[in-house]
Amino acid sequence: MIHLRGEHADVVIDESFGAPVIVHWGAPLGSVDPGSVISALARPLVQGALDVVAPVSVVPEHGSGFQGRPGLAGHRQGGAAWAPRFVRHEVLSVDGGVVVTALDAVAGLRLTTTIVLGDVLTVHARITNDGTTRYLLDALHPTLPVPAHACELLTFDGRWTREFHPVRRPWGSGAWVSENRAGRTSHEHQPLVFAGTAGFGEWHGEVWGVHVAWSGNHTLLAECMPDGRRYVQGGELLHPGEICLEPGESYDSPTIIATYSGGGLTPASWGFHRSLRALPAHPRSARPVLLNTWEAVYFDQSTERLRALATSAAALGVERFVLDDGWFGSRRDDRRGLGDWWVSPEVYPDGLAPLISHVRGLGMEFGIWVEPEMVNPDSDLFREHPEWALTTPGYEPVLGRNQLVLNLAHPDAFAHILGQLDAVLRDHDVAYVKWDMNRNHVQGSSSDGAAGTHSQTLAFYALLDALRERHPTVEFESCASGGARIDHEVLRRAERVWTSDCNDALERQTIQWGASMLIPYELMGAHIGPNRSHTTGRVQSLAFRCLTALVGHLGVEWNVLDLTEDERDHLGDFIELHKQFRPLLHSGDSVRFDPVLNGQTAASHAYGVYASDRREALVIHAQLTTGMSLLPPPLRLPGLLADVSYVVEQVPLPGARVAWLGTGIVLTGAQLAAHGVQLPRQYPESGILLHLSAVSGV
Hints:
By secondary structure, the chain is of the alpha+beta class.
């Protein structure tokens, strides 16, 4: 028996089986005999069932009698070795966890599982072909048991410009399954699920969260078995024949990252956030306010206009200027040029150096957009090397956005793209790269004819790793038509994600609400767009657009040359407001408060950040639509220091006309949690910003 103790959760492991069995993952147990956990939870045999109770191991085995979905699926030629049964071989302790190796001599397979408990629980599995013939792998999905009293699920739906929408559902008998075949993390199927006790909320109930840290195809399964046991299983979704292990070869599953909280969703999110903040790639410096040129100029990249845009942006307090699509090759529209990563002499006859020099002279960093995993058929690269496209010979390839996927697993294609991007970063003063990926994989085959998404995902990681090694001071953003590549594995390599292509503040409220359950605010790209949204056509006030973008890595995606005098003043004032609170926003613990509902729809969102010492807080109340009451209910703020008094003040928002009923109220943390503060009536698509600062107490 192995007892892993964490600050927020405990894990008890029975390593007497082939694959280890997690018999407890949840509330800290204190000093106990871990064997007593097994004794307490031992399941008797029941009539009509097998004569064994097969455990829900980290890799459950059909061959041992497990009646759910096996954690390992595959076979040898002719169908042999399809239901292995492993025997423990070796158990090694590692920092914070354990590595268990198990063998199946009959099947010729070696299974290695690693379980580590820190800020989160991580589980990883490796299968090795110890036999003398090929092993065709269909799935290797690490599995985590969830207690029987976790009877509700929170999952996420989405699409382009509407990512990370939370969906609550009861978790009765049967299974909930999510499968993604997009070739990227996807807009539609976020690899994240929370299980919880009945009625769990942001600050109450037990919650278990599971994330598949992988940027390609994935699957998630949450099943309540007929015998009442529950488990969550996740991993890479493999196409038929995609992984064929020759003798001696191994396959590594994606890492499963899991978090537990005894006090609701918000503290559960902190586990995911802490694990990201501990990564070497996590940004340590203040997140520069940026201006992205896309919705300002689109493909109209006139050097004179861009210089004027940069001058105007710098005067507003912008700190990073990002040149988006259209600077390279023949790329004057979205039908050509992808793959030709050299500065276009047509648009920049003197190169990018004069523009970069102008931007740097204004005190701003310079960033640039790329899409290295794609190629247009109308490009020099494709005309010279059509064999480098990730397609299947004999079939007419399916286009997406007038482009094909470039097979980065092809060594020559990889070397070519690495060389081109390396030259761009070497020859120019570039501090930031917006890395985009704008279409799904369809019928993409590697050079040997097998499905190529797995190898493409690994090649993407390798390319990004190589560029980061060569240019360690350059920051990278993970963008994929917006939020289609947001996961913890890509965030080992990126300092920012583009949350969504939608800058509509009303849509963004829910998108960012859902995304904050997986990532902290400082990684979340949040832009102030123009008055009329590019993607929805909706018109919103500048104050609401600014307030919605406040908490994230702030950007402006708007032609600031066209601003009125009032808009310029208000935008500049808001950028300064963001900078004032940026240290708190990007170091504290993000918080959310259960929304007021109109039926199944949130009428308002309340969220913000608490300082790690809980002596300061910033809270937003955003009115999304009209509520059933003339006034919203009092805003209660749990989680502060109960005996400490706080001054509650409204922060004026530039250009806003919302008045509060009072200001400078002094309340204890206990009062804020118990009765809260009454807010005024708010019009839809408006908000209030509250600042809390401790004035007494220890």
